[in-house]
Amino acid sequence: MTGGFVQNLGSFGGLRVHCLIIFGDLVCFVRVQASFGRNLHWKWTDKMGFAELGLRSSLLETLEKGEFHTPLEIQELCIPEVLAGEDVVGISETGSGKTLAYALPMLHRVKALEEENGVLESKASPYGLILAPTRELADQITRVLKTFAHKTRLRVRMVAGGVKRSRNSDDLKNAFELLVSTPGRLMRFVEQGRLQLDQVRLLVLDEADQLFEMGFLKELDSILGKVHEDRQLMMFSATLPKAVKQLIKDRFSGAKILQSKRAHKPVDSVSIRQIQVSPDLKFEELCQSLNHLKGKGFIFANSKGRCDDVAKRLGEVGKGVCLLHAGLEVGERKKQLKAFASSEGLILVCTDLAARGLDFVDVAWIVNYDMPKIPAHYLHRIGRAARLGRNGRVVDLVTPRDSEMIEKLRRRRVTKGQFALDESLQGAWMGPKNKGRPGSGRQGKHKGQGSRKEQETRSRGPGGGRGGGRKSHQKRGRK
């Protein structure tokens, strides 16, 4: 320590004090809060809170009410840069709080535009635009924005595919400052002259990798050409495929690329267990695994038909099951998600439609009934668990045909090198210091294949919800 000083960062009123103590490179943040007649409460942390990032008081009050005191890594990296007007590319793992990383400074800057130019009166001509690949994610972002926009007195609207156009049209009839939309539906209303983008000063591409996967490049180029010339661009993604790198080069060349330490990897608080199984014994293995998994969870399958079959069979053995895939009508999807959200111990059987944009903070586990075909999808799937700093469990049911996928995950260090499968699928789960060794158990049809040869390792560390900051006892929340 080379010395330091104390700076008063707050104000008095029932006694609320915020102090920053600096000794060389060591920063200690002290929060003292009390009301008359009550005991003093001291909080020491090695990170500064949201107040020190420069956000306006109305946003800080909402954060305080939600008990979000300390920003997550991607939020701490991005919020000051966005507030300073910089173009930003944020790369961070699923479940790390990316939504608030742009939502908070965006609300701050949009409010500043309103204060500078007066209350926005032009119909369907927003200052801020957020593009999301799916209706489910758009709906989730909208709910987060509305939570924080209420105290800040800003209006938020959503236009998305899968929603009746008449309802979208009604939402566009009045003035509003922020719009969340899917690219296809947005362009349809722009082409019809019912929505103007020339006043958009802040543009966010959320889940940019999925926007490309879904073929929205043409729409993105068109939208970028229609917004205000003096606009601020932000892009957020959990992975960085070639298409996203190319967009950064073409459209975000001057942006600051901010990447969390665990980008492209799952959060630290998730444990992964792999079980080798013969394809024709997979459902029996699933049922056995479910006996050891408590609380709510997702079961991922690779097709609509597969989901229907698994859900039906689970129902037949007495499991409470909800279903989500693209074959369901939007109304039925909402009904299923509402049932899952409101009940304890239910299982959501789903395709990769549920791998992004759903933020159930109480999801305790994930089962990959079918392994995904792309490593990035694996990251998104397991990111549904271990949110808000909780511990999450992942079970992969691995068949011989999945060996290539397992090798890809190992090469990309998606799982920090914690497991590997050898060519004959004898290795099963291997921890960092363990050698894979054949285990005992019933034999499947495939020669030499044990059904349950696994070991489990758990690494604990700060996780995160899609939006929230750290609470004093590690509660975090989105979004």
Describe this structure in words.
With 479 residues, this protein is α/β, with parallel strands linked by helices. It has three domains: 1-46; 73-259, 3-Layer(aba) Sandwich (Rossmann fold); 270-411, 3-Layer(aba) Sandwich (Rossmann fold), CATH 3.40.50. It has 14 helices and 17 strands. It has helices at 57-65, 73-83, 98-117, 135-152, 165-171, 183-191, 208-213, 217-226, 242-251, 282-290, 304-316, 330-342, 375-382, 403-411; strands at residues 4-8, 16-23, 26-33, 41-45, 88-91, 128-131, 156-159, 178-181, 202-205, 232-237, 256-259, 270-276, 296-300, 321-324, 347-350, 363-368, 392-398. A seven-stranded parallel sheet has the order 7-8-6-9-10-5-11. Strand 16 (363-368), helix 13 (375-382) and strand 17 (392-398) form a beta-alpha-beta unit. Helix 1 (57-65) crosses helix 4 and helix 3 crosses helix 4 (135-152). The longest helix has 20 residues, at 98-117. The chain is globular and about 65 Å long. It starts with a strand and ends in a 68-residue tail after the last helix.
How much helical structure, as a percent, in the residues? 25-40%
Number of domains: 3
Spans with pLDDT under 50 lasting ≥5 residues? Answer: 1-45, 416-467, 469-479
- Average residue-wise pLDDT: 77
Largest sheet: 7 strands, parallel
Query: What top-tier CATH class of the largest domain fits best?
Result: Alpha Beta
Question: Would you report the number of β strands?
Answer: 17
Q: Give the helix tally.
A: 14
Please state the second-level CATH architecture of the largest domain: 3-Layer(aba) Sandwich
Strand content: 15-25%
What integer value in Å does the Rg equal? Answer: 24 Å
- The gross shape turns out to be globular
Structural classification: alpha/beta
Which sequence of strands runs across the widest sheet?
7-8-6-9-10-5-11
Named CATH topology of the largest domain: Rossmann fold
